[in-house]
Prior knowledge:
Helices cover 74% and strands 1% of the residues. By secondary structure, it is mainly α. A hairpin with a 6-residue loop joins β1 and β2.
Amino acid sequence: MDIIVSAFEILLRWDVLIALLIGSCGGVIIGAIPGVGPAVAIAIILPATFSLEPIVGLTLLLGIYGSAMYGGSIPAILINTPGTPVNALTTYDGFPMTKRGESRRALSLAYSASFFGGVFSILCLIFLSPVLAIIAPMFGSREIFLAALLGIILVITAHRGQMFAAAMMASLGIFIQAIGMEPIKYSKRFTFDQSWLTGGFNLIVVVLGLFAISQAILLLVQKDKREEAVKVEGGLFQGLKELGKHKRIASVASSFGVMMGMIPGVGEFTSQFLSYTYAQRSSKTPEKFGKGSTEGLVASEAANNAVPAAAMIPLLALGIPGEALTAMMLSVFYVHNVIPGPNLFQNHLDFVVALYISLLILNILVLIFLLFSTNSLLKVIQIPSRFLGMSILILSFVGVYSLRNSFTDCAVAAGFGVFGFILKRVNLPIVPIILGMVLGEIMEGKLRTSMMKVKDPIDFINRPIAFILFTLIILVILLQVRTLWKSFKNK
C-alpha cells in the first residue's frame, strides 16, 4: 500500500498529468491517421523528451504507445484501412459491420474491447510487480546476456517467411552499434579514419531515419489520397454493455496479449493471431468470422491493447526492449541515468508502479475522449498524404538537428531514411535493425563483464536462471529447425 501511495505522489503533478493528457489524446489522433503510426510519432517526439524529467517523458511516450491502437481502429472499421499495422486484423470484421450499417456498434465494441484489454493487462502487472522485484535481482550479467540473446532469436523467428532477412537486419544493427569508440579500451572500430564516425551512430538519429524519414518519403512518392468516412450517428456507449456477452473471449484474448507482450520480439501480431484463432474455434458461429463477427472484433482489439503494458516487463525488469517502441523508450532512461534492470525493481518499485498507474489512467482518458470525439477525428483521416509526408519530413530533421546541433546527424538520418524507404518498398523488416543496435550493445557489455568471472563454458550456465535461459534458446532453435524441415519436406 505504501508503494501505491508513493506512486500516486510521483504522478500527481501538473507536468506529469499534462504529459499524460497530451500523449493519450495525441496518440489516438496519430493512430487514426493511416500511414503514420506510433513508431513515427515517438521517433519525432523522442528528442524533445530528453529535456524532461524521466516520469514526464515516459508518460508522454507511453500515452502515444498505449493509445495509438485505439485510434487505429477508426479507419480500420470505417474505411477498411488500418490506422496502424496492428489494426489490420480489425478490418476483417469491423469493415463488414460498417457495410451492414453497424459502424456505431463496431466502433463502440472496438473501444470497449480495447479498454478491457488495456485495464486487464495493467492490473495483472501491478499485482506481478512484487514478484518481479524478487526475481529481478537474480539476473546477473550472464543472465541478462542470455536474455538479450534469446530476445534477438525470438525477434528473428517471429518474422515467419522472412527469417533470413530478419537475421541479416539484426546482424546489421549489431554491426552499426559497434562502429565508433570501443567502450572498454577506447580503441576505434570500423571508423576508417573518418572523424565523423568516431562517435558512432546515435540510436535516435537512426530511428528517425529508418522510421520517420522513410515513411515521409513513402508518403511523398505516393499519389495524394483523401479518404472519406461516413459520419457515425448516435452514442457509442452500447459497446460497454455488449462486451459483457463476450467476456470469455475478451479475457482469453487479453491473457494472450499479456503473455505475448512479455516475450521479446513477439508482440501484438502473435497475440492477435492466437486470440482470433481461439475465438473462431470456440465460436458457435465460426462461419461469421471475416464477415462481421463481433467475437472476432473483440478478440483482435482486446489482444493488441493488452500488449503495451506487458511489453514494459522485459524493459523495466532486465533493460531488454522487445520491440522498436520500447527500444526508443530505453534511450529516455539512459539519458537521465535511470538504468532499467534488477536495481530499478529493487530500489525504485514506486517509479515502476507509477508507470503502470499512468497506463491505467491513460486508458480511462482515451475511452472518454473517443466516446465523445469520434466524429471530429474523422477529419484527421482526410489529411492529404503528401502534406502529411512533408510535415513528417520537416519535423524529423528538426528533431535530429536538436539532438546535437549537427548537420552531420541530419545527413546520416537522411541516409538511413533512404535505406529505410528501400527496405519498405521491397518489403524487408526494419524493426530488427533497431533491436540489433540496442540488444547488441547490451550483449557486448554483459558478455565482457561476465567473462571476467567465467573459467570455462560450463561456468556460463551453472546458475539456475542462466541454465533455464540457455535451455530456452536451444529449444527455440530446435523447434524452428523442425518447422523449417517439415515445410521443406512438404514441398
